Amino acid sequence: MVDQQIDIAELLKCRLAVAKGILHERLAKPPFTTIDGVEKLKNRLTSEIRFLETIESGKQPLEKKFVETSNIMHFENIVNKAEKYEGVTAVLQTFTIKNVEDGDRTMKHIVDIVANNGNRWIKVISRSPKGICMDWLTGASRNILEQANDYIQMSKRFMRNFSAPEVVFDFTAGVPDRIANKLRSEGVNVVGTLVDINTITKVPEDFLEMLDVSETKDVETSSSEPYQPPINLDVSAVFVLVSNLTHEGGTNHRFSSKLLTQQAEMEREQPARRNLLEKIEGRDWIMCKTAFEAVKTIVYTVGGETERERWEELIRKVRIVEDNPSPKSELLQLSDRINSRSIVIFGSGDHYKAVTATANKHFVSSAHHQGVAFDVVLHESRALSEQKEQEL
């Protein structure tokens, strides 16, 4: 019994060392310094550390179940995998949307790792193959097949380039082979060592039949190039493309406008036009008539001569399309942040299967809360500035 207590004490010491190493060293360095959700991961690690420290100090009993069930090893696996995958943009990211088809019930889904610049959702499974198998056999809620269904269904609600993000289940300790085959048949890309299910436990024949698959769906691999749909230019995107503020020398002026002064400071740090072009160049550009007429009116009212010239040059590269809001956009209710013009612009982009380039984050967020998700490229806002330039 004494030896067992020593082993548990050593395990506790090891868990704490791992957690503190992740918290204070690994998460403080690239790539985690630029990844969303790292603060959430830090908070969860801190909570685990505090609990284990109450055991270390004697405030909680030194019991095996408390130490072994700590989530620290799972968080370590998430960190390890986040370092492995390309283009990681977030960890522990929550996707929230209201399901208008189910009485406006709020649906929340946490993705362990968002990779490939948003085109891949990764779930990290630290559970043992036996644990995975027993959860499924005993009908435990949220077993691995139910989780896969949730991932697949939710990914379809948050399209990237009008394709659902690839769903990857990465099993760090291995996965029962028949369950892996079933997951693949549902469209999940399975990563991990396959373990013969018959070596884990005796599975009833009728349960094995539930895992039979007749055809495996093709799952997009990381080596294939994602589809690049057209770009639907919102009014704000056009301003970024034509404003003097986003072109050479545009920030070398004084502005009486507080907004323009702030935007000039931001532009020196983060050039909005360059950043936007990196995301949309090489694609077809469209504008619906409502966006076209709105920009035209504003440019010829408050735009300067050079800004008007850029606008006229831009529209020669853009295909103007009829307003045609998609059915889902017409479900939106008008509010302080959702107006009829935005519904037409975003809805038309959705109809033409084009990703909308916009700085209107409030509209995108408010639409999500009403159960409508649009495929967008977000960028910083810039106003037309030429008429308000003053010499330094």
CATH architecture of the largest domain: 3-Layer(aba) Sandwich
Note the run of SSEs as H and E.
HHHHEEEHHEEHEEHEHHHEHHEHEHE
Q: Order of strands across the biggest sheet?
A: 1-2-3-4-6
CATH topology call of the largest domain:
Rossmann fold
Largest sheet: number of strands, sense, barrel closure: 5 strands, mixed
Description:
The chain is of the alpha/beta class. The protein folds into three domains: 1-81; 85-225; 231-388, 5'-nuclease (Rossmann fold, 3-Layer(aba) Sandwich). The protein has helices at residues 2-24, 38-56, 64-68, 72-84, 129-137, 144-155, 177-185, 205-210, 235-242, 258-269, 272-280, 289-302, 305-315, 340-351, 361-369, and strands spanning 90-99, 105-115, 120-125, 166-171, 175-176, 189-191, 194-195, 231-233, 285-288, 318-321, 355-358, 376-378. The strands form three sheets. It has a five-stranded mixed sheet with strand order 1-2-3-4-6, sandwiched between helices. Strands 10-9-8-11-12 form a five-stranded parallel sheet. Helix 15 links the parallel strand 11 and strand 12. The longest helix is centred in the first third of the chain and has 23 residues, at 2-24. The model is unreliable at 218-224 (pLDDT under 50).
